[in-house]
């Protein structure tokens, strides 16, 4: 993450704003989607209109759904770089109560390896390539260029925060940010004992012995592809991470059993390209999702 500039055209009066909002505007100007955190380093909860999934969003914040709530109501999915949103009345009320600023790493094409204690830091220094580091209360954040799926407790004292997650902003850090290495991506892959062998191709025939893949049912497979298409089509921001997350979700369910065909993949790529993704970005996102899942 580059050091954001201290002033931004149209916001030279930010010195009069509360400290969390000033920091948020600096990060947003650098292209990093931000959100406020309340006491306890937690995001703000759903407003009454969104409570109980009434707005169509997911209660566990895996997607924002079709909700257009003007407030900071959906954790990481509310993160934005829009200064007009950040300074709107609904967000200003949240900034008055905020204790710190968080950001959505995946939407900024970043991954944070959250090292929670000295032992985890020692492990990272011996195992991972050096990159930008930021001190935390008990450990460090190691920040890499590139997005991936998020996962907690990948090893003792180590969490991965990228797509569909938020991380606290604790300062610009030190060191040169480097590309996300395979060693970090591998941390999010399940243990080999729980992963079935991957086929060589996504388009495979029915299983031998006359059996048929249990997912090869029109309703189940069609619903999964349609949901992924809808998730991409309805995205209003963070398109890169949304496309990657949709690809990851489809592959995690259907990537090992032979359900997917070229026609299904074409539908997903078409939806992504309609949102402005290039063929190269689609191909990279698909390859990264396969790598993350060990396919």
Explain the overall architecture.
Helix content is 33%, strand content 13%. With 295 residues, the protein is of the alpha+beta class. The chain has a 5-stranded antiparallel beta sheet. Helix 6 packs antiparallel against helix 7. The longest helix is centred in the C-terminal third of the chain and has 16 residues. The chain starts with 18 loop residues before the first helix and ends with a helix. The N terminus is likely disordered.
Compact overview of the structure:
The protein is α+β, with helices and mostly antiparallel strands and 295 residues long.
Please provide the count of β strands: 9
Order of strands, main sheet, comes to 5-6-4-8-7
The DSSP helix count reads 9
Structural class: alpha+beta
- Please bin the fraction of helical residues: 25-40%
Q: How would a crystallographer describe the biggest sheet?
A: 5 strands, antiparallel
**How many whole angstroms does the radius of gyration measure?**
20 Å
Distance, first to last CA: 30 Å
C-alpha geometry: globular
Secondary-structure element sequence? HEEHHEEHEEEEEHHHHH
Can you give keywords for this protein?
295 residues, alpha+beta, five-stranded antiparallel sheet, four-stranded antiparallel sheet, 9 strands, globular
List the helices and strands and how they pair.
Elements: H1 19-29, E1 34-38, E2 42-43, H2 83-86, H3 89-97, E3 100-103, E4 110-115, H4 118-127, E5 132-135, E6 140-145, E7 151-155, E8 158-161, E9 167-168, H5 182-185, H6 218-233, H7 239-254, H8 262-274, H9 279-293
Antiparallel strand pairs: 1-2, 1-3, 3-9, 4-6, 4-8, 5-6, 7-8
Helix pairs in contact: 6-7, 6-8, 7-9
